[in-house]
Amino acid sequence: MFQMISGSALIVMMADNKTKSTKPANKTPPKSPADPAKERAAKRLSYESNSSHEGAMAAELSALEEAFRKFAIHGDTRATGKELHGKNWSKLCKDCHVIDGKNVTITDVDIVFSKIKGKSSRTITFDQFKEALQELSKKRFKDKSNEEAVQEIHKLIEGKAPIISGVTKTISSPTVSRLTDTSKFTGSHKERFDPSGKGRGKAGREDLVDASGYVPGYKHAGTYDHKVQGSNPSSHGR
C-alpha cells in the first residue's frame, strides 16, 4: 500500500514538472544599462533647480524674518527674537518708513497691532507680523493691488535694523564748569593760562627771566629802540 501511494505521488510530481517546463519563457529583452554619467548629470540638474528655487524663497523670507528678529530683541536682553512687543513694533514701522504720516500714522499702527495680537497677549509672532503688514499695506499703498502692496511693504522692512537715535550727550554740571573755567583760577594755576583760556606752556610753569629791560606789563615795551633809531641824524637824508 505504501509503495503504491509513493508511486502515485511520484507520477503526480513528474506531471507537475512537465507542466512547468512547458510554460512559455519570458522573451522580454533585458533593459539596456543606462549611462551612469547621464543619470548623475540629470539628478544634479534637478537638484540644483529645486535648490535654487527653494533658496530664493528662503532668502526672501529670511530677509523679512531677519528684520523681525532684530527689532524683536532690540532693547531687551531676555528676548528670543521669536515675538515682537508693541513698542518695538511701533519702532519698526517708524524706522522702516511704514509710517508716512499721511496714509499710515502711529494710531493706525497701534490699532492693527491690537487687532492682530491675542486678547491676553502683549506680543505678536512672525506669522502675525506678516498678517499685520498685510493690513497696513492696504493703507500704505492704496494705488496698488493687494499682492503688490504686500511686496512693497516687505521691501521697506527687509534687511533693516533698529536705528539708534542720538548719542550720549555730556551733562553740564556746575561743579565741572567751575573746575574747568580758567578765568576763575587763582595763584600759580592762573599763570598757566592766558586770558583766552589757552595754555601758556613752559612760560606758565617756570619763571622765565625777562631781559628786555622793561617793567613787566609796560604798554610801550619795545618802542625804545625804535625811538632811538628815529632820532639818529645819520638815519635822515638817505
From TrEMBL:
Transmembrane segments: none annotated. This is Tubulin polymerization promoting protein. Belongs to the TPPP family. GO terms for biological process: microtubule bundle formation; microtubule polymerization; positive regulation of protein polymerization. It is found in: Cytoplasm. The keyword NAD does not apply. One of its GO terms (molecular function) is metal ion binding. InterPro entries: Cyt_c-like_dom (IPR009056), EF-hand-dom_pair (IPR011992), TPP/p25 (IPR008907).
